[in-house]
Amino acid sequence: MTESTFDFIRNNMAGTPFHQWLLPELVAVSDEESSVTVRLVIRPELGNSAERTDLHGGIVAALIDIAGHAAAAAKVRHSVPTIDMRVDYLRPANGTEIIAVATVVKLGRTISLVDTRLTNDQNKLVAVGRASYVTG
Amino acid sequence: MTESTFDFIRNNMAGTPFHQWLLPELVAVSDEESSVTVRLVIRPELGNSAERTDLHGGIVAALIDIAGHAAAAAKVRHSVPTIDMRVDYLRPANGTEIIAVATVVKLGRTISLVDTRLTNDQNKLVAVGRASYVTG
Amino acid sequence: MTESTFDFIRNNMAGTPFHQWLLPELVAVSDEESSVTVRLVIRPELGNSAERTDLHGGIVAALIDIAGHAAAAAKVRHSVPTIDMRVDYLRPANGTEIIAVATVVKLGRTISLVDTRLTNDQNKLVAVGRASYVTG
Amino acid sequence: MTESTFDFIRNNMAGTPFHQWLLPELVAVSDEESSVTVRLVIRPELGNSAERTDLHGGIVAALIDIAGHAAAAAKVRHSVPTIDMRVDYLRPANGTEIIAVATVVKLGRTISLVDTRLTNDQNKLVAVGRASYVTG
After folding, report:
1. What is the pTM of this model?
2. Which chain D residue has the Cα nearest residue A136?
3. Among A101, B20, B82, C126, which is least packed by CB within 10 angstroms?
4. Which of the other chains make 3 or more beta carbon contacts under 8 angstroms with chain A?
């Protein structure tokens, strides 16, 4: 039986040692929209400060990389190296969880571009990312 | 007695919950060169794969954010919000440790720019980052 | 009588010496969508090659800067300095004209972020841009 | 007789219609340093304002694209498509001329990264750029 794209990405994410600590959770894969949705539950050890629940900027960047990679990998059914990534921090990423939606903007023969939007549990945009991957 | 800039940055880094897991180590602060040096020892749980020691791309991005923040904070003696960051992945970040050297390119009244270079234990450049911070 | 936002942006664009050669044309300003639309007619002297109509990559970047600036300036009613800009080139920008739609992603007290999409006369996406501006 | 790299880049730049208006001038090519130097004389029609000599941000971006392309093309001896570019604006780019020095940071089999620094006639850094090119 053929593995679904959802299962392929979930397994791809689960096999990564860093993810076993970070615990990003694959929520959805949409082939029509070329997008994936990843949830990250906020825990104190992901934080920037002992006083607040704000995610560390490096964790925000990591989540953008993870969701972007998943969106590109879902299209080509294999892991893809990241060429480069831009992250824009818009608001503190706090609350109970962060939802990342990554969408393939251009699926190229060699290089693909993915946009990622991170929202908090109030559905406010907290960060956006844009990354290119070698998909050829 | 006045706290040295090195101690200020070391304490600033130590107080961050995420760092207590990641364990970035402040090696040097140079006021003349407007730079800081941060070492990250590679551990399996920071990895991208169970088979290799390659750091996860999100950890590479986090290290760039941490070193860049330290370089900017060393100039103004307080924490500074990241506006945005670009990361370029050049080679797998593997071996025993990664050294990040972050240098303030422009210290502005409102906004500052920092460049960061990551090298492996063979002194090969594995990634570069560029980030802007609110320093005003 | 109050000058409309459309007229303010049109006049702001018209007063720029470089624009008098490039000839970007303001098509629309939408306050609800926080967006502006700018058209650029492709001329041979904007090109990358004598053989094709492809816009030069520098002209693509300039159009992204112009449309992004207009979207941010429309919100605050004054010119705004660009902090930084990312441009991703997706396809050759050729045909008869390029349409740029720039949308404010976040209007901040100090810093704002704008996304810009460039499409050709076949409505194909040729480039995307993301830029931050000092709006405070 | 073999065409020198300097002559190859100079001819490559001269054949571009947009350059015949912009007039970027190739000053030097260094194979050892993997760098090229390009001069742009500031003229009123490149400006952002009728009152000052500040270069338009789009012209700054174009110069970064041109110098970056030249540095990458000098290594592989053919034109190379730009994947993406980041531009950081540090100071107004004014005075009599701007000097762009572009250096290849990583020459990859498929993708290469180039850093570009722009200085004014007082040798002050006015902008930096970072762009990736398909060199494979």
Report:
1. 0.96
2. D110
3. B20
4. B, C, D
